[in-house]
Each structure stands twice: as C-alpha cells, then as structure tokens.
UniProtKB/TrEMBL annotation:
Keywords: Transferase. This is Presqualene diphosphate synthase HpnD. Pfam families: SQS_PSY (PF00494). It comes from Magnetospirillum aberrantis SpK. The gene is hpnD. It is an enzyme of class 2 (transferase). The keyword Transferase applies.
C-alpha cells in the first residue's frame, strides 16, 4: 500500500512541513526494510542486504557519510531530532527475525519482543520527530496495539509467506493444536484464537489512551489519529469475526480522511 493511500499519509498531513518531511523519510526507511524482508529473494541475499543496511547505518553515525539514498534522505532527521541509533537498528532486528525464520506460533513474550522491534521502535523514533521524546511509554504501547491489529488483519497474507504470528497460548486456548500457518488459516477455531489476540490489542489501546491522558495530547495528533484509525479497523475485524480471513475488511480512504478530520478538530 502506498503512503498516499494509507493511514500514515493522512496522519502525517497534520504535521508542520519540516516534521512531515522527516516522517516521510522515516517511512521510506521502514518501507525499504520491509520490502527486503518480504521479497522473493533467497534468504542469504536478504540477510546480506539487511547486513549492508546495518553497516551503512553504522558508517553514517560514525562518519556522517551515507551512500544509501534511503538512509541519506533520513540523515537530516537523524541529526535534527537526535533519532536513536538503537531504535533504527531494532527495526533491522525485527526484519531479520522474519528473514531468518518467520515466527510460527510464538509465545506471547516472543510476540511482544517482535512488536517492540518492528512497531515500538518506529513509535520511539516518531515521537522525537513530533517533539515529544517524553512519550516513550505511549509510543511502545501504541506500537504493540497497532502491530497486533496488523497481525489480525493479515492472517491470510502472512500464512502465504509461511508466517503465523498468533501466539501459541491463544491457539492452545482455542483448541488449535496444529501450528502450520495454512492449517491454522482453515481451522474452524481460528476466530476464537483471533478473538484472544484482539482482546490483547484492545487492552494495549486502552493502556495507550490512559498514558495519553497522563502526558497530554500536545504534538501527538498524528499518533492519536493512527490510534483512532486502527481501533476502528480492529472493531471492523471483530464485527466480521475472522470468518473470511482471505478478505479482511479495510477502511476506505474516505473513512480514514473522516477520522483525520475528527482528530484534528478535537485537537484544535
């Protein structure tokens, strides 16, 4: 999905131009890593490409020189907003876990670590660009909620890639004793397992909202919009009940725009 048609695009429209440019550069970095992890290239090739990105990132921090165009586009934001190298590398760690052997029925603890790497890291980088480095707990908690929603939406797509992010505890509780992604996808108890994960996602959204109340909404409107959009997506998934995982409900562009307008109005 392109940035223009995604929730990300509409959320970033709420930012001042300089911060918006930085966020789109961060989006480009994330998208580049995601494309490597999801490509059809041999595993060794994908590992090597991620290793090159890691080395290029290290060289950028140590010398200020960058030959990779995607990282070069992000480098001004790294300097201006003091983006932590550890968080940029954590995202690479998450992509490597997909390449080295996709998660298949992980434990809750393994899934939480994965969410922290692929989503929490982005949140931790974004809040610095937004100008709210104090919002770390909110960013990590919201990142987990967003990633769990993505997992629930993309069960079928992930299964085609040999991935099964639904945790083993949820599968066992639903009575699903086989852990092959394809087998789980067609199992009659799949909705029950997804409902358990959905409850965890809703709890994370509630915790993120509570933290937001504590720290205040200032400069966090894009994140608030993402939260509102994904909560609506999760509600749609629950309404459908995962009976047809091959065709998950998706929010229309108009729906995303309407959410953006409501969030912007509430923050004005």
């Amino acid at each position: 999905m392109s940035g223009r048609s995604s929730s990300f695009y509409w959320a970033m429209r709420l930012l001042p131009p300089a911060r918006r440019k930085a966020m789109f550069a961060l989006y480009g970095y994330c998208r580049m890593l995601d494309d490597v992890a999801d490509s059809n290239e041999p595993i060794d090739t994908r590992r090597a490409r991620l290793a090159v990105v890691r080395g290029t990132l290290a060289a950028l921090h140590e010398t200020g020189v960058c030959l990779d165009p995607t990282l070069a586009a992000l480098s001004p934001a790294i300097r201006q907003y003091d983006l932590p190298r550890a968080e940029l590398e954590a995202l690479i760690d998450g992509m490597e876990s997909d390449v080295n052997g996709p998660l298949t029925a992980p434990t809750w603890e393994q899934l939480q670590l994965y969410c922290r790497r692929v989503a929490g890291s982005v949140g931790m980088l974004a809040i610095r660009i937004f100008g709210r480095p104090d919002a770390g707990t909110f960013a990590v908690t919201l990142g987990e909620a967003l990633q769990l929603t993505n997992i629930l939406r993309d069960v079928a797509e992930d299964a085609r890639l040999g991935r099964l992010y639904l945790p083993v505890q949820a599968l066992d509780a639903a009575g699903i004793l086989v852990h092959s992604p394809r087998a789980v996808l067609t199992h009659p108890a799949l909705p029950a397992a997804c409902s358990i994960v959905a409850q965890r996602a809703k709890t994370a959204f509630e915790e993120a909202n509570a933290e937001l109340t504590r720290i205040g909404r200032k400069r966090l409107l894009p994140a608030i919009m993402m939260m509102a959009t994904y909560r609506r997506q999760l509600a749609r998934l629950e309404e459908r009940g995962w009976r047809d995982p091959e065709r998950p409900p998706r929010l229309s562009r108009l729906s995303r725009l309407w959410i953006a307008l409501r969030v912007a109005a509430a923050g004005s």
